[in-house]
Specification:
The protein is of the alpha+beta class and 555 residues long. The protein has four domains: 199 residues, FAD/NAD(P)-binding domain, CATH 3.50.50; 131 residues, D-Amino Acid Oxidase, Chain A, domain 2; 30 residues, no CATH class; 84 residues, Alpha-Beta Plaits (2-Layer Sandwich), CATH 3.30.70.20. Helix content is 26%, strand content 24%. A hairpin with a 5-residue loop joins strand 5 and strand 6. Helix 1 runs parallel beside helix 7.
Amino acid sequence: MEKVENSERDAMAFDVVIVGAGPAGLSAACRLMQLAQAAGQELSVCVVEKGSEVGAHILSGAVIESRALDELFPDWRERGAPLKVAVSRDELYLLRNEQKAVRIPQALIPATMHNSGNHVVSLGNLCRWLAEQAESLGVEVFPGFSAHQLLLNADGSVGGIITGDMGVGADGRALDSFTPGLILRAGYTLFAEGCRGHLGRQLYRRFGLDADSDAQHYGLGLKELWDIKPERHQPGLVIHGSGWPLGDGASGGFFLYHTENHQVVVGLIVDLNYRNPYLSPYDEFQRLKHHPLLAQYLEGGKRVVYGARAIAKGGFNALPKMHFPGGLLLGCNAGTLNFAKIKGTHTAMKSGLLAAETVFAAMAAGDEGGRDLADYARRFRDSWLHEELRAARNFGPALHRFGPFAGGAFNFIDQNLFKGRLPLTLHDNHPDHASLRPTRECTPINYPKPDGRLSFDKLSSVFLSGTNHAENQPCHLQLHDPSLPLGSNLLLYAEPAQRYCPAGVYEIVEENGEPRFRVNAQNCVHCKTCDIKDPAQNITWVTPEGGGGPNYPNM
């Protein structure tokens, strides 16, 4: 067998290559083709998606605003877009303990959290529909191909990507099934990989995109789809809340949305700035479902799908520079989620529309690619996206600095009375990975065993995510220093990777009487939490073989 570094690769050239078939990437693709057709120009656009199909790796709440969709396809209803359940009722709760819940009066809820006029959807299904629209416009969509490497021009600008090789053994040598990745050249490359994108991280470093930004902050979102009893189903009911079971410096919030077909989605977002290394976001979610507020809907039902994904929630203050020579950074890859609304779909889509308009204007003027499209920053500043995110700039920092009660009061005043125009800007530059305290300063958390009715173990959950990776491939969870998990993290923090990972990837096992740090990469649901939360910043998530990972239906 031979090493694969020097393998010959087939090359394809496009005007625009888009990395990621999420709402941002697909919106950009559709708008580019709309503009080209309206101008009578030919344009070649390719979308590369690492999931086995479009939507396979998409996980979101999701309650969405249709504002950006209205701009992209004003006739989306006639086209059959899967927005079938309008929000019928909106409730917000504070859980005081494992039994008590206090409903927050509508008059005291920040205006950004009201959901009248929004829709409960499967974002995966919305992306599948967007991909159909894109292909009907002439976009080429390539699922099952991971964008593994930046393709750089001689002047250092981005000139496309190289997809990941297939059929490489764990030792880095070619197997009999080896197929080299493709070179996809592009005048401009749009990166819409989602939160903590593999190539996005490289772009941040190469071009210093976050040099003038606040530290990004993250949450881990855990979600399940349930079939429930018909008599308990209330289509369009949206429930949000916070409080129990999170405490001791941990924050976040839960959701339960009634969708169609007697189904609900239930989930918990745990902010990744929590301090206690004994905390397990997965187990917090499992015990949350036993609260009577949620259990009243789930009892007697059946869990259908499980998934987890990190979200970027730093908001306006943490936005990077989104343009660089040869490309643009879009959606959650740039952190455009509006945390004050707990929504990122409409903002991601709008970033894609702005990107398409910027790129097309340049190309229509004769630009062949490779330039730094600084005009994107102007278009962004002049858009409702900038206005919306700027108005919400204090929401997250207020909660982090003042806590849920004082921070919530601040946000009510800021959002309801001043409409986000208070003449001050709060900042939070303490990175999430640096927030853990040593175990000697913390109290262990004893989580109840799952009952198999409302709560479940990790491995059965991973099974429901449809996660699979080809065996005997290089591990995509790279340890920069293999000695740190046992030599440092275990001693200081009882190796928190065992608990912050929601898929049982990391374990401390005993072999020959000695502890060993084991990485079960086959279980990985691509949530990126390890890349974010590891206190030593010793783990880097890279793209595995294309098509691997979760296969989410209806998420």
